[in-house]
Amino acid sequence: MMADKSSLVLRRLLTLVMIVCAVAFFYPIAYVVLNAFKTDAEITLSPMALPAAFRLDNFVRAWTAMQFPRVFANTLAITAFGLGGIILTSSMAAYMLARTDSRLSWLVYGYFVLSLVIPFQIIMVPVGVLAADLHLMSVPGIIPMYWGLGCPTAIFMFHGFVKGVPRELEESAAIDGAGRFYIFFGIVFPLLKTIVATVAVIDALWLWNDFLLPLIVVKDGTIQLAQMIFNGQFLKEYGAMSASLTLSAAPIVAFYLALQKYIVKGIAAGAVKG
């Protein structure tokens, strides 16, 4: 009886903690969205209050000043093609590394894993110089740079998951005359949909919200860079800034919510299998 009562108290305490955490995480989102409908004077006087009237002036200002259709298209292209390249190259590389049982394959895999501990800030100067030398200082040019920067993490996740795919499936297909490419794309890759969705969500959040690399390479043309127009040295447009944050976050939040169920499942499977 005492054990049941203690368990009930513990569950209620954990529920209370989770509610507090949920409110703490939800509050900044509500804060930004509500301020997007307020004037700068209202935000300055009472930033935590509800708007006196729900106005769309800030959204119009953000849409025109940022040239939102142009920067949205550029950011979407970078995210889509960058993500596609990361998933394709990383899954193929991880498959070969997982299926090649040699010292060289483990050295290459270790090289990728080791690169995970190197912060981007350490390599951003040589990356910028290399981008200039290779004429990659543009929206199309930044996409292959994201492939190189995003592959180590994706390879690490794919590698563990591929090792959990039964080799017997590939051996049966090989006996029937299937080639290596058909075995991977026709048999193995469809079985990786959980980890593919996980990599897609994690890297899409990174690509969509990245600020530092586009600042070095592109300098203009992405949503995150365009938002800086409202954060000047002598004037800060808080209402338009909040509206721009709301507009830029809406697509990627929707993408995250659509695939969130795969995140923990894919990360756990990719880290433990094998």
SSE blueprint:
Elements: H1 2-35, H2 40-45, H3 57-65, H4 68-99, H5 103-114, H6 120-133, H7 139-162, H8 167-175, H9 180-188, H10 193-209, H11 212-217, H12 223-226, H13 238-259, H14 261-272
Helix pairs in contact: 1-13, 3-13, 4-5, 4-7, 4-10, 7-10, 7-14, 8-9, 10-13, 10-14
Outline of this structure?
With 274 residues, this protein is mostly helical. The protein contains 14 helices and no strands.
Descriptive keywords:
274 residues; MetI-like fold; mainly alpha; disordered C terminus
Over all CA atoms, what is the radius of gyration?
Answer: 23 Å
Shape: globular
- The CATH topology comes to MetI-like fold
Distance between the termini: 43 Å
CATH 2nd-level architecture: Orthogonal Bundle
Helical amount: over 70%
Strand content: under 5%
What is the count of DSSP helices, taking H or I runs of 4+ residues?
A: 14
DSSP E strands, number: 0
Q: In the CATH hierarchy, what is the class? A: Mainly Alpha
**Helix and strand pattern:** HHHHHHHHHHHHHH
Q: Identify the quaternary structure here.
A: single chain
What is the SS-derived class? mainly alpha
Show unreliable segments.
Answer: 270-274
Q: Main beta sheet, described?
A: none
Counted up, domains total 1
Average of the residue pLDDT scores: 86
Q: What's the CATH superfamily, by name?
A: MetI-like
Description:
Helices cover 77% and strands 0% of the residues. It has 14 helices and no strands. It is an all-alpha fold and 274 residues long. The chain has helices at residues 2-35, 40-45, 57-65, 68-99, 103-114, 120-133, 139-162, 167-175, 180-188, 193-209, 212-217, 223-226, 238-259, 261-272. Helix 1 (2-35) packs across helix 13 (238-259), helix 4 packs parallel to helix 7 and helix 10 (193-209) crosses helix 14 (261-272). The radius of gyration is 23 Å and the shape is globular.
